[in-house]
Specification:
Mean pLDDT: 82
Low-confidence stretches: 237-243
Number of strands: 2
Order of helices and strands: HHEEHHHHHHHHH
Bound molecules: zinc ion
Structural class: mainly alpha
Number of domains: 2
Largest sheet: 2 strands, antiparallel
Number of helices: 11
Radius of gyration: 24 Å
Helix content: 40-55%
Strand content: under 5%
Strand order of the largest sheet: 1-2
Distance between the termini: 63 Å
Amino acid sequence: MDKEAIVRRTRGEQPLWVWLAVLTANDRRCTYCEEKPSQTLEHETPLATKGRDVWWNLVPACDRCNGWKHKSSATMWQFNMKMQHLHPKVGFARNTLPIQVVEGITDRVERVQREIQDPARLQWFEHHYGARKKPRLRGETLEGVEDCMEGLQSYPYLPWTSPEVRNSSSRCTRRLCCGHTDRDARLQWITVTEDEHRAFAQAAFHKGLSVSDLLSHLVRTYPAERSDDRLAMPASDHEEVSQ
Ligand SMILES: [Zn+2]
Ligand SMILES: [Zn+2]
């Protein structure tokens, strides 16, 4: 896909998956105030001052901040708000955020842009939402963002952080996400107690693996070690009957 072609569009023409990738970043909060949910794609360096309409220039923002910032760059807006706090009578900015919030803007913009530019994350959004049309009304797009946030909460880990089952540029094959649709993969359900689950999750965490990765590792290596383990394993009822 020609990424340059997509990124040159104006905000309204950005495809749905770009809206979702940007608005779900920063845990769906506005990059500037971190108080309100993000509602729009904000050009960090505005188009009016040579800012490009590309995703590495987009951050999620609320309508209020988007309006207040208007045609300033984030750095200039931050500067004006700082001056407003220092010299309230001069009128550097008509409205301003609390000073602690203002101080953090540059760092937050950098962090949120890093999150949005993560190639695995971008690819995941494109795989899952690339084929969907953006609704005509912004309210409907924002409902889509809600659904997407809800969907993401159902994964034990952010799906784009789990390894790919195999390489595919056309669809998602991430293990904790769509990997089970891989021809060679099977989805396996197991039943454990709350305590067992907690202990296993901790063990996986210490190994730096996801629960699912550790479990599949055990399933893969167990048959090879079975002969050594035989005596140590608790015998099942079935085995006792047959002995
Ligand atoms: Zn805001
Ligand atoms: Zn997937």
